[in-house]
UniProtKB/TrEMBL annotation:
Domain spans labelled DUF2427: 8-100
Transmembrane parts of this sequence: 15-38, 45-62, 82-99, 119-139, 151-175, 242-260, 272-291, 298-317, 323-345
Protein name: 333_t:CDS:1
UniProt cross-references to PANTHER family, sorted A to Z: INTEGRAL MEMBRANE PROTEIN (AFU_ORTHOLOGUE AFUA_6G12730)-RELATED, PROTEIN YTP1
Xref: InterPro entries: DUF2427, YTP1_C
Domain annotation Protein YTP1-like C-terminal: ranges: 128-347
Keywords of the record: Membrane, Transmembrane, Transmembrane helix
Organism: Dentiscutata erythropus
Length: 404
């Protein structure tokens, strides 16, 4: 390339200033202003106006930079107009809302626009995050040509873990009342997300004709997620908590911690990522407070054992399939066996002459009652908390009694 030099040139001050203004606007000011909008604070409008001014300055700086050059079709400059138009509409709607017209057609138009303003308002920090990631990959020329696949995989997967973490925090801090009203446990929603994500990963992680290690590993993780997610949804019926999401995170962490990479640094970073995931899982198991799915573990170990016969192993070597992808597929199979067995038991109790499971036999699927209030953050009286903890301890005991 003849203009290689321009692509390697240092980043000039104008571009650094662009980054600083945009980061402050989309990373700090707009999210803060969004929360002030949701809480109906009188600071909402001033804060968003400051964010908009920062954006205008950042916009001109982004166009005015010298120094390093970038390919014309870079994703950051392609996505920018979309984000800017979204913001302009949002500010326009905001201005209309601020004028407080209430007569005539405004009677229905105002509530409608408020709703739209709210939805766009929640999307802006998310789109801003995406645009910032695009900025980072543009600045170093990452994710172009043949690197696009692994690049997408890492940024999307990584972002989805971040989103999941944030989502869990929001659920815990804001939505425990909502969960209680819906009669669903957190694990129910988690399992849906994991399942949906698993389907996406199962069908999108393989490119070209040859199945590379990376394709295999990512696809087998996808299978693990949808299979395990399905079981998690099933076990969450009637607001029960269950450890499926935690188990899936544990297996994912294990696979990541042993994910062979092209360089030592990369292997170490993946290992760290895996350990962090595994510790997240352990914390979650502790939060749920019991270890019940020993039956599932038995099925899984049975499959691993069956799958470890010498001919199979030599087949794996022949096809170049790594042990972790293989183990994940076996884990997925054990989820499905576990699921199908439970479905059949349910069918038995709900068909023919049976009209439901006999009361008192519910510990076939061990569970604990939903902790309706989080003892760490709730201000309810201590007797209630004591009850929740007591029930939790009790369901633990039930689980260790082998009558099922
Ligand atoms: C500078 C331009 C803006 C103005 C003048 C403005 C004005 C307003 C007004 C007057 C409300 C109250 C609506 C009502 O309660 O009837 C509101 C709510 C809200 N605004 Fe803005 N806004 C602006 C920009 C933004 C931006 C950039 C965001 C997001 C990043 C945002 C997010 C929100 C949210 C989430 C609500 C709460 C809506 C609800 O809970 O129903 N606004 N805004
Ligand atoms: C969400 C906030 C951001 C917005 C809305 C934004 C918007 C823009 C716009 C409108 C341009 C001019 C594009 C063009 O020349 O056609 C630009 C350029 C650029 N921005 Fe951003 N930006 C943001 C954040 C960032 C961040 C965080 C980085 C880097 C870490 C970054 C790196 C760049 C680079 C490298 C260019 C030059 C691209 C080129 O010359 O084609 N931006 N940005």
């Amino acid at each position: 390339m003849d203009n290689d030099e321009a692509f390697q040139a240092p980043i000039d001050r104008i571009l650094w200033a662009h980054i600083a203004f945009m980061f402050l606007a989309f990373g700090i000011i707009f999210p803060t202003g969004m929360v002030l909008g949701l809480s109906r604070s009188r600071w909402h409008v001033p804060v968003q106006i400051i964010g908009s001014i920062f954006t205008i300055i950042g916009y001109f700086l982004g166009h005015a930079h010298g120094g390093r050059e970038f390919p014309g079709d870079n994703i950051h400059s392609l996505f920018a107009p979309f984000l800017i138009y979204t913001l302009i509409s949002q500010v326009g709607i905001g201005a209309y809302l601020k004028l407080h017209f209430t007569s005539g057609p405004n009677k229905w138009f105002r509530p409608l626009t408020t709703k739209i303003h709210k939805i766009i308002g929640i999307f802006i920090p998310i789109l801003g995050y995406v645009q910032m990631v695009f900025g980072v990959i543009t600045i170093d020329g990452w994710c172009r040509g043949e690197n696009i696949g692994q690049c997408l995989a890492h940024f999307i997967m990584g972002s989805s873990f971040i989103a999941y973490g944030i989502f869990l925090i929001l659920m815990l801090r804001l939505a425990s009342g909502w969960l209680q009203r819906k009669g669903k446990s957190q694990d129910y929603y988690d399992s849906w997300i994991i399942m949906a994500w698993g389907f996406v990963n199962t069908f999108t992680e393989h490119r070209g004709n040859v199945w590379s290690h990376r394709d295999l590993q990512h696809t087998s993780l996808g299978i693990l997620w949808w299979a395990g997610g399905t079981v998690g949804i099933y076990l969450s019926r009637n607001g029960k908590r269950n450890i499926m999401p935690a188990l899936i995170i544990l297996f994912t962490g294990y696979a990541m911690s042993s994910h062979a990479q092209s360089s030592e640094i990369s292997t170490k970073i993946h290992a760290m990522f895996g350990y962090v995931l595994m510790s997240a899982s352990v914390v979650r198991l502790a939060e749920i407070g019991f270890l019940s799915e020993k039956k599932l573990m038995l099925i899984f170990s049975g499959l691993l054992f069956m799958g470890a016969n010498i001919e199979q192993i030599s087949l794996l070597t022949e096809y170049g399939i790594d042990p972790f992808s293989y183990a994940l597929v076996l884990a997925s199979t054990s989820f499905l066996i576990f699921f199908f067995t439970n479905i059949l038991i349910d069918l038995y109790w709900r068909s023919g002459q049976n009209d439901g499971e006999p009361i008192g036999n519910n510990d076939i699927i061990a569970h604990m009652p939903l902790p309706l209030t989080d003892p760490h953050i709730s201000s309810s009286n201590s007797e209630d908390d004591h009850d929740v903890l007591f029930q939790r301890a009790k369901s633990n005991d039930d689980d260790y009694d082998y009558k099922a």
